[in-house]
Amino acid sequence: MRFPKIPVLAAAAALGLLTACASTGPAEQPGASSGSGTSAPSSAVPTPLDSRSESPSAAASSPRPGSDAAENDVAGTIVRFTSDDARVDVTIDQDTPAVRDFLSMLPLTLDVEELSGREKIAYLPRELDVVGTPGSDPEDGDLIYYTPWGNLGFYYDASGIEYSDQTLHLGTYDATLDQLNRLEGAGVTIEIAH
Questions:
Q1: What is the pLDDT of residues 51-84, one digit of tens each?
Q2: Is residue 32 part of a domain?
Q3: What is the mean predicted confidence (pLDDT) over 109-137?
Q4: What pTM does this model have?
Q5: What is the domain extent for residue 143?
Q6: Measured between alpha carbons, how far is 117 from 120 in angstroms, rounded to an integer?
Q7: Can you tell me where the transmembrane regions are (predicted)?
């Protein structure tokens, strides 16, 4: 059987034209940059530049008009520690990787215990991400994270304790020793106060 030559030639010519149109590379397109050498897949149907809409991934990664990075700052967040007999609020006063990781774990229920007549401590279920978080010189009223043991600590007698890269400041609290003593025990709930 013999195929007619004209329809086959017309189809080949149309395919050649479509291939030529689709092969326009990034360097040939107006406004394209040579960047990393990778490019997004091109659309099968060409669209005029002024009718293209921003891709969902570009919209998600670009800042919204009028937005400010400070909107996402966690400083000022109140974390509430509650037992049957007491409530202690901690104010997060800096934005660090360790603070953000701690907040991402909440709500939690932990046991709080006394340590050495200086602090009340509670062991977290896992280590915090501390990369990029500076050490601190703890003071009375500080909630800290102690990296070697993976515990939180409410300092109420930090006298003689100096700066350490292993003691990370998370926030501050304003509670009496009596309130901290009543917080001590099993089943202390830790959550962001709303």
A1: 333 333 333 333 333 334 445 899 999 999 999 9
A2: no
A3: 98
A4: 0.64
A5: 78-192
A6: 8
A7: none
